[in-house]
Amino acid sequence: TPHAARPPRQRRQRARARACARGRAAAMSLLLRLRRLDASLANPTELRRCLHLHDLLLFGVASVVGAGIFVTVGVAGKEAGPGLILAFFWAGVCCTPTALCYAELATRYPFAGSIYSFVSRTLGDYFAFIIGLSLIMDGVVSSAAVAKACAAYFAQVLISAGIPVPEVFTNLKINAVFSISLSAPIVLFGMGYTAYKGVKTMSRFNNILTGANIAIVAVVVVAGFGLIRPGNYDPPLPTGLAGVGRATALTFFAMLGFDAATSLAEETVDPERVMPRAILWTVAITTAMYMCI
Fold first, then answer.
1. Which of 196, 217, 206, 172 has its CA nearest to residue 70?
2. Are 180 and 168 in contact (CB under 8 A)?
3. Do 282 and 210 touch, CB atoms closer than 8 A?
4. What stretches of 109-163 show up as alpha helix (H) in DSSP?
5. pTM of the model
6. Strand ranges (DSSP E) for 74-231?
7. Secondary structure (3-state) at 64
């Protein structure tokens, strides 16, 4: 036969080519595989649904409003002046379409994983892997920065009380780029242990801290009303609409984080009804807080 007449080397090359083609096809089908929604609903996890609207709302507010709220106001205020209030308003408006998308996806796919779960069920595992890797990198970098900032604040409290704190526990600079803070890992381990104890324990702890944060912002706002000078608002837009636009771009990224609540969908009671409300209320409340501060 013609097949038998071929040289052995040519037959081996053709066999390898067919094997490589089958391997590539299998790899692509695996990478672009979509997770079936009906299969996910038919095999629910054993996560306990114990979170309610107020838990998700405070979790979303905590993800958006932190100590950076005071820094953002100062940085963006240099661009817009009194028009900063308008900039925060437009930032909230710009966040609303994204919030609506997250609310729709969280209602349709009420599973743990947030955007990773959404992408894996709509675009496939390959794109979900890229998104998941980005989320891990974002979490590592942001957690390190927040832990270091918390350690520095705590050390400053001790120093104010007259308790000496070695520099290695706060911010020991190695060179112009790197520095060491031995207190930051303690903060991370503490937060990790709280999460390990269960989502309800973590939620109670977060509710206490977020309530204190909201109370501090409220005190600053109320105390600041008595210090308002009308002359500082003339002219209302010293840099024009261009300055308001630049300030909006700066404040927009400060208001991201409302999507964090979607990662708790599988531990939420009635997520189809609670998730959209929590996300949209988070955007509305945080926008009002930024405008007031």
1. 217
2. yes
3. no
4. 115-122, 125-160
5. 0.75
6. 172-173, 179-180
7. helix
pLDDT at 274 over 60: yes
Q: Is the peptide bond before 7 cis (omega within 30 degrees of 0)?
A: no
Q: Tell which residue, 209, 66, 69, 235, has the closest CA to residue 143.
A: 66
How far, in Å, CA of 111 to CA of 204, rounded?
22
Phi, psi of 179 (to 5 degrees): -150, 160
Closest CA to 66 of 171, 219, 210: 210
Which pLDDT does position 1 carry in this prediction? Answer: 47
Give the end-to-end CA distance of the chain in Å, rounded to a whole number.
85
Any idea what the Cα angle at residue 64 is, between residues 222 and 284, rounded to 5°? 65
- Take residue 12 and report the two structure tokens written for it: 């081996």
For 95-140, how does the pLDDT look when each residue is reduced to its tens digit (9 = 90+)?
Answer: 888 888 888 888 888 887 788 888 887 877 778 888 888 888 877 8
Burial state string for 111-126 with b = 16 or more CB within 10 A and e = fewer than 16: bebbbbbbbbbeebbb
Q: Could you tell me if 281 and 62 are in contact, meaning their C-beta atoms sit under 8 angstroms apart? A: no
CB contact set of 28 (below 8 Å; sequence gap of 6+): none
Two structure tokens written together for 119? 């992408």
Tokens of 252: 């927009």
Residues 239 and 79: their CA atoms lie apart, in Å, by 7
Tell me how far CA of residue 266 lies from CA of 109, 150, 203, 261, in angstroms: 9, 30, 14, 11
C-beta separation of 152 from 170 below 8 A: yes
Sign of CA dihedral 274, 275, 276, 280: positive
Assess contact for 148 and 181: CB atoms under 8 A. yes
Write the pLDDT tens digit of every residue in 179-223: 777 788 888 888 888 888 888 888 899 899 888 888 888 888 888
Least Cα distance to 106 among 56, 143, 146, 69 occurs for 56
Task: Determine the residue type at 72.
Answer: T
- Of 257, 247, 264, residue with least CA distance to 282: 257
DSSP state of 35: P
